[in-house]
Amino acid sequence: MANESRPCPCGIGDRFEYEGCGQEVRVEHIKAYVCKPPASTDRAVVVIHDIFGWQLPNTRYMADMLTAHGYIAICPDFFVGQEAWKPSNDWASFDDWLKTRNAGKIDKEVDVVLKYLREQCGAKKIGVIGFCWGGAAVQHLMLKNPHLKTGVSLYGVIRFFDNRSSLLHPTFFIFAEKDEHIPLEQVTLLEQKLKQNCKVDYEVKIYPGQTHGFVHRRREDINPQDKPFIEEGRKDMINWLNKYL
């Protein structure tokens, strides 16, 4: 099988056995997972899923972690009902699958979600985080959407938006040193372009020895040596959001 000879790099790492603390809601034409902290807050974070979709337990775990730190967290279905990628799919068909799921064409859904957060949840300061496909979507939103305050792009696919670097909002980029999907040369080029063109605060950080998806798709007990970097990535993400929200 093609998957065995050339596995999808996004499939590295285990899925959590995790139920989630929030609830599924419908926001106009979009389904979404929402989790709210017990105390009232006007800070919210939109969580943009990877290619495995909005129902991936790992992503919901991250949304719940944000809520544990005092944020309203919402993970909408940015594929809008289209089927998420499955680890069993033939990786050779990935490019065709991706053509109908453009990380740069989620603006309509984002506007709906922001309206919901403001009107139904009382959010006034809203940030965004995203993983892989969602990380690229974060970069798109940081380049375009004036209503967000900040973003964290976790191993976002650089090649989707590699020709644009004039960010509107402070953005933190998390990359893995051994990411087969995002070569370090691309990260270096991104840094150069940001240095030349970006007028807001940004940071690009590479985590040693890590592979694609390490912050939300790697289980600490599988590779104990990775645990400090997983924890560091999550802490860095929270600290960035705390600083700008």
Notes on the protein architecture:
With 245 residues, this protein is an alpha/beta fold. The chain has a single domain, classed as Alpha/Beta hydrolase fold, catalytic domain (Rossmann fold, 3-Layer(aba) Sandwich), CATH 3.40.50.1820. The protein has helices spanning 2-5, 57-68, 94-98, 107-121, 133-144, 184-197, 214-217, 227-244, and strands spanning 23-27, 30-35, 43-48, 72-76, 125-131, 150-154, 171-176, 202-207. The chain has an 8-stranded mixed sheet with strand order 1-2-4-3-5-6-7-8, with helices on both faces. Helix 2 links the parallel strand 3 (43-48) and strand 4. The protein is globular. It starts with a helix and ends with a helix.
